[in-house]
Amino acid sequence: MINYSDNITFNPGFSKFSQDLPFDLLEHIENLKQRTPKHKIKFELSRLIPHIGKSIDIIASVYAGCMLWGTFLNLYFQDNPIKITGNPVEELSEDQKKELDYTEEPKFLLNLMQSVEKDSKFFLNKHFTVHPKVKEILEAYEDFAQINNNFTETSFTNDIKLVSYLQKYKSFSKEELETLHDKIKNAINNNNIAELLELI
């Protein structure tokens, strides 16, 4: 049995896997194609595109983990909700909360994937490779952030709303939810966040 007294953390350790794909990356690629001699474009893109794919996989793994953790919090404590601690949104001013948009990054990544796929086919004659579940995870996280109002009202475990993508977990028993909890923690502790792509 999992023992949490009266509170549980908002983030069990996903922060260390954060990846930074700048929002001007699409513009950078376009500039590269326009300003780089044609014989060098293929070389430059062959170096850049695999890095983009790996970064997107890691970001999607973190999103999967966030949704799975939220699912665990909501369902495991549904009979006795407890306080969620460490939600960084609670530290923001009201004006900052209004400007907050956690859907911005998954939207950007979905557009980036579509654009890079075209470039990869055209210049490298190959498909842009990411984990098969990445697209659906990005779309689901976009919904997850939206229906939870960018986590501005996530103070207790019963405040978390689940998207349809996660509905299958509603039938999980306490024991199955405890197993889910342990798998999330193990993926974090073993620095193998990609394991979470297989759980969702």
Could you characterize what this model shows?
With 200 residues, the chain is mainly α. The chain contains 6 helices and 2 strands. It has helices at residues 25-35, 38-76, 94-99, 104-124, 134-147, 174-189, and strands at 7-9, 83-85. Strands 1-2 form a two-stranded parallel sheet. Helix 4 runs antiparallel to helix 5 (134-147). The longest helix has 39 residues, at 38-76. It is elongated and about 65 Å long. The two termini are 22 Å apart. The model has no long low-confidence stretch (mean pLDDT 92).
Task: Output the keywords.
200 residues; 54% helix; mainly alpha; 6 helices; elongated; 2 strands; two-stranded parallel ribbon
Summary of the model, kept short:
With 200 residues, the protein is mostly helical. 54% of the residues lie in helices and 3% in strands. It has a two-stranded parallel ribbon with strand order 1-2.
Shape: elongated
Rounded to an integer in angstroms, the radius of gyration calculated over CA atoms is 19 Å
Number of distinct beta strands: 2
The main pleated sheet reads as: 2 strands, parallel
What share of the residues does DSSP label as strand, in percent? under 5%
Give the fraction of residues assigned to helices: 40-55%
Give the overall average pLDDT.
92
Topology:
Elements: E1 7-9, H1 25-35, H2 38-76, E2 83-85, H3 94-99, H4 104-124, H5 134-147, H6 174-189
Parallel strand pairs: 1-2
Helix pairs in contact: 2-4, 2-5, 2-6, 4-5
